[in-house]
Amino acid sequence: QVQLAESGGGLVQTGGSLRLSCAVSGRTFSPYVMGWFRQAPGKEREFVAAIRWSDGNTRYADSVKGRLTISRDNAKNTVNLQMNSLKPEDTAVYYCAARNNYYFRLEVDEYGYWGQGTQVTVSS
User: Fold this and answer.
1) Average model confidence (pLDDT) for the chain?
2) pLDDT digit string (tens) for 65-84?
3) 90, 106, 110, 112 from 83: Cα distances, Å
4) How far apart are CA 97 and CA 34, in angstroms?
5) Which of 22, 45, 56, 74 could pair with 39 in a Cys bridge, judged by C-beta atoms 3.0 to 4.6 Å apart?
6) Strand, coil or helix: what is 102?
């Protein structure tokens, strides 16, 4: 079993930055793909970014490319999301997720483990 716990959310002005972290505990397999998703009020949960734990390869949603950066820290067992140049449309609850498979997938249903989420609010 894998446990995920997000931290680092908060309130920031347009153009500001935040850094989210996801602490991974429990049994961890190298083939895991770790992802960040977000869900705004009244909208479906959507893919933001993902990283393969074993080799650091990444994938991003088009809407966040060049502004958000996903990374992992093997020593600390954390996955981070550096968020720069934030916009009001980035406001959402951000979730960390884990996938027990080598290949990248962007669909919510492809991830079997989820954290509780952390709120990010970007004021205009």
Assistant:
1) 94
2) 999 999 999 889 999 999 99
3) 9, 19, 24, 24
4) 6
5) 45
6) coil
| Rounded CA separation 38/36 (Å) | 7
Using CA atoms, how far apart are residues 45 and 37, in angstroms rounded to an integer?
Answer: 7
Pull the structure tokens for residue 13.
């002005």
- The rounded distance, in Å, linking the Cα atoms of 85 and 11 is 14
pLDDT reported for residue 1: 79
Gap between the terminal Cα atoms of the chain: 40
For residue 29, is pLDDT > 70?
no
Burial group, residue 19, by CB count within 10 angstroms (0-12, 13-18, 19+) = middle
Structure token digits, residue 39: 């869900």
Helix (H, G, I), strand (E, B) or coil at 69: strand
Decide if 97 contacts 36 (C-beta within 8 A). Answer: yes
Reference 69, options 48, 88, 87, 95; nearest CA is: 48
At residue 118, does pLDDT exceed 80?
yes
